[in-house]
Amino acid sequence: MDRIAREMMTHDFADAAWQERHAITRVDQLRAWMGVAAGDDLMRDIELGLARAPMAMRITPYVLNLIDWSNFLQDPIRKQFIPVGSEILPSHPLRRMDSLHERESSPVDGLVHRYQDKVLLLATDRCPVYCRFCTRSYGVGLDTQSVSKKRSPAFQSRWDTILAYLRATPVIVDVVVSGGDCFRLKPSRILTIGMGLLSIPSIRRVRFATKGLAVLPMKVTSDHEWTDALAEVSDAGRNRGVEVSFHTHFNHPREITAYTIAAAELLFKAGIRMRNQSVLMAGVNDDPEVMQQLVKTLSDLHIQPYYVYTCDLIDGIEHLRCSVRLACQIEKAVRGITAGYNTPLFVVDTPGGGGKRDVHSFEHYDSQTGIAVYQAPSVRPKQLFTYPDPLHSLAPDVQVAWSDPQHAKRMLTDAVEAGRANSTGFE
Ligand SMILES: *Cc1c(COP(=O)(O)O)cnc(C)c1O
Ligand code: SF4
Question: Is residue 151 over pLDDT 70?
Answer without folding.
Answer: no
